[in-house]
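User: I'm putting together notes for a lab meeting next week and I want to include a structural view of one of the chains we've been expressing. I don't have a solved structure, so I'd like a prediction I can at least talk through. The sequence is below, exactly as it appears in our construct file.
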Amino acid sequence: MRVLLAYRRGEPRVCSMVHVPSPEQEDAKRPVRERERLITERGAHTNRIKALLYGQGIGEVFPRRADFVDRLVGMRTADGRRLPPKLVTEIRREHERVCLLDRQVAALETDCAADGVRWAVTSA
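Assistant: Thanks for the context. Below is the predicted structure for the 124-residue chain, given as structure tokens.
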């Protein structure tokens, strides 16, 4: 009771009150949180593709480019061999996930544009 009375008197460091958001306020935060998760996941898949290729001696790849899959077929390992077929298949599946996440992020941004949602700048 002493703490509550001190807080009511205006003593600043006695305690802090927690503001519980309304269901509407909490729901309004969902698009931003979802977009952050999607971008994080997209970055993870992109990094996985880069790591798989780097393990074969191939650097400077850009998995989000439109022609990435076409270029993948022509890539050679550091010693000049073609990429192993199962590796190519795995990379294609990872690339499909990246493309799906790109579409989901774009759809989310389009849906929220009318609501005036402003996005923080992300570098993924």
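A couple of points you could mention at the meeting. Helices lie at 2-9, 23-54, 68-74, 85-113. Residues 22-113 form one domain.

User: Perfect, that's what I needed.
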